[in-house]
């Protein structure tokens, strides 16, 4: 259904009808890297009030920022991308967004219909490029279709837990007279869980050899409180998936460990559980296949109870589980207490970094974690830090952390953002620093400078490669030449510091958190 906006000028072109429809549907932020085909959308952003535009120098920054924005705002932003190649540049972080259950509305420009026939140099199969990373793909055919297509794109993006929607906007549909602004369309509600599944979970959760495995919206502070009551009643263990879109943590909150990433550690941890109830999580599998090792990480005789998926009403089902177990009035188990941490002296290691984080993390911080190998020591040490939010890479495509920090800071300008990034990962989307400086975002970045793709050194062993030679090791090294992180940061307008000792790291991170703008610290390991 469409309605004529009393405040919009007449006639209104397709691009303006789309911008006004997005705003009416609650989409008020656009992460953009436009080109010629999108200029009418750019012009509409200029003269239609209500849409904030954040410029990125690389499309992977725009798509990753939209992911981070959804995780913290709970509503989608849009991206503005230039034709098929621009979309292709953003695919890796759209993959991550899709795996995280983040709602994103991509607006991708296309040639005018008359130009498509000419097979111009930038002509490509945009829909074909979009489909693997999108739940919903639509190309507007007429300018009068654009507003309704935009409303449907937002509705698709808001489908629980969140979806990637890609709207292809041919330039002639942007410049031709459009239809009226479309009314917002209601998103689908979260699915309710059948009673018999709750009954199965009640029977399965009994004692320390049972596990409640949590993911998605089960990791809010309120839902973790429910999980803690369930654990108090049943004695079951609580774990989350290895990577989570968003988890609330810290003192006063129920502490939940993670299924480890290294396959041998994961097999050891999960072997003790004979019954596993899934609430917003998938049954545990390995990140990769390894010779002679199982892909399924649970014991062969484990009973898996699929209580609820990521798109289900996880708050409702955990409440039902509490009621079924007569646990609703209990005090939650596994609540973290505040712990004071002493920062050690000496060289920077994963363990000393963890101590620094536990010591200096401010209350209500947002932690964006793309540390992979270095970060394996962080979770236990920070369980008693002030209450905070932790964001992980759910899709495994590196280059996630810096853009997601941009999106999180855009959504929550009143909160401190702490981005923990490996040096190899950060180089994929280093352009995000420029956007942080341009927007003067309150982000402190710690780059773990081990001058290598450290995770891949371990993976050589995991896949059975013994005694790798110098050429193999050289392919995983970043020290010829060393990366100049301080110079790169300052070249993009971000203050930078280099430290190689733990006490100096603590001082630098504290100073970065006390400042109001972006700051980068290279932690030499």
UniProtKB/TrEMBL annotation:
TM stretches of this protein: none
Keyword annotations from UniProtKB, A to Z: Thiamine pyrophosphate, Transferase
Domain (Thiamine pyrophosphate enzyme N-terminal TPP-binding) ranges: 12-117
Gene3D superfamilies hit by this protein: 3.40.50.970
InterPro entries found in the cross-reference section: THDP-binding, Thiamin_PyroP_enz_TPP-bd_dom, TPP-bd_CS, TPP_enz, TPP_enzyme_TPP-bd
Pfam families per the UniProt record, alphabetical: TPP_enzyme_C, TPP_enzyme_N
Top-level taxonomic group: Bacteria
GO molecular function list: acetolactate synthase activity; flavin adenine dinucleotide binding; magnesium ion binding; thiamine pyrophosphate binding
SUPFAM superfamilies in the record: Thiamin diphosphate-binding fold (THDP-binding)
Keyword Transferase recorded: yes
Single biological process term from Gene Ontology: small molecule metabolic process
Ranges of residues in domain Thiamine pyrophosphate enzyme TPP-binding: 386-522
Family: Belongs to the TPP enzyme family.
UniProt cross-references to NCBIfam families, sorted A to Z: PRK07586.1
Protein's recorded name: Acetolactate synthase-1/2/3 large subunit
Organism: Sedimentitalea nanhaiensis
Organism taxonomic ancestry: Bacteria, Pseudomonadati, Pseudomonadota, Alphaproteobacteria, Rhodobacterales
